[in-house]
Specification:
This protein has 305 residues and is an alpha+beta fold. It contains six helices and 15 strands. The termini are far apart.
């Protein structure tokens, strides 16, 4: 039986499902992992185990026992990494298009985690369970750009807290359909799981979480606009859903955009360009700039003609 770390929280949002409440309080853990903890009896409310659909009350005391990290069954793989920065605490990589960040059913190899496990050997945080060592945040498979990997639990906890407080800088570049009216704007619309299509997110979800995206125009190309988006929050598919919700889906987005794309693209033209945070050991603010991938640069040149 592994040692258990116990965490006590005082619930303050009456009527909210316990798994949703915990996924907001413990952002370094995935919702599915939290649901597994609930199912295993590792989540107690007022001293008693509950089910995932339990609705919390104002004065509930919630206790979460998080098992020590297990040895992952995920194998290290010698996959080249585009490293932007590395020290004893963090690794910043420029993720290529088509690479999944962490293993999942049907995708247990050729992920960023497999590559990072090979590169870092035993120097990875284990906070997020067996499937996501070192992973604090993620970007979609067909989104490129900067991602931070944590090499120890202290760094992971500090960066997870910065992520929760929305103090991490995340600026993305994208090409969207249409000509945006304003040079800049803010989209403040909740994002949650689509009510009928579970693979999609939506701004019309009944229990969406607040999501805020700031955008500004970089260049206009008539039927397309090159923009920068800065995340205030970080919900699943946030930029893709938000831009589609105002009638300007991201070019190449096969989930939220038009079925037909006039260019030969592999998924959405979305790139995590700027990543900034306070270093977990020194407290110094650091910012990293992931160069645009070649396909993105070629597409911009084509649109400029």
């Amino acid at each position: 039986m592994p040692d258990m770390e116990e965490l006590s929280l005082t619930a303050g949002r009456s009527g909210e499902r316990i798994d949703r409440f915990l996924s907001e309080e413990l952002e370094s853990l995935s919702r599915s992992y939290i649901q597994k903890l609930v199912k295993d009896g590792s989540v107690l409310v007022n001293g008693k185990p509950v089910k995932a659909n339990y609705k919390i009350s104002q004065d509930d005391i919630v206790q979460v026992s998080i098992p020590d990290p297990e040895e992952p069954d995920i194998l290290p793989e010698d996959i080249p990494l585009d490293i932007l920065y590395e020290d004893d605490d963090v690794l910043i990589v420029n993720k290529p298009k088509g690479m999944v960040v962490h293993p999942a059913p049907g995708h247990y190899s050729h992920t960023l985690v497999n590559a990072v496990m090979f590169h870092c050997r035993d120097n990875l945080s284990g906070i997020n369970g067996v499937m996501r060592p070192g992973i604090v945040h993620r970007i979609d498979m067909d989104t490129t750009g900067s991602l931070v990997i944590c090499k120890n639990d202290t760094a992971h906890q500090i960066l997870a807290e910065q992520l929760k407080e929305h103090s991490i800088t995340r600026r993305y570049h994208a090409i969207v359909h249409g000509n945006l009216k304003a040079d800049e704007g803010v989209i403040d619309a909740p994002v949650g799981r689509h009510p009928t299509d579970r693979k999609k997110m939506s701004t019309k979800a009944p229990h969406g979480r607040r999501a805020v995206t700031h955008y500004r125009v970089l260049e206009r190309f008539g039927n397309y606009t090159y923009i920068e988006c800065e995340l205030e929050t970080g919900r699943t598919h946030q930029i893709r859903v938000h831009m589609a919700s105002i009638g300007h889906p991201i070019l190449g987005d096969q989930v939220y955009g038009p079925a037909k794309c006039p260019f030969k693209l592999q998924g959405q033209t979305l790139h995590a360009k700027i990543l900034g945070f306070h270093h977990p050991a020194t407290g110094e603010y650091m910012e990293f700039d992931a160069p645009l991938p070649e396909y993105f640069q070629r597409l911009l040149e084509q649109l400029r003609k």
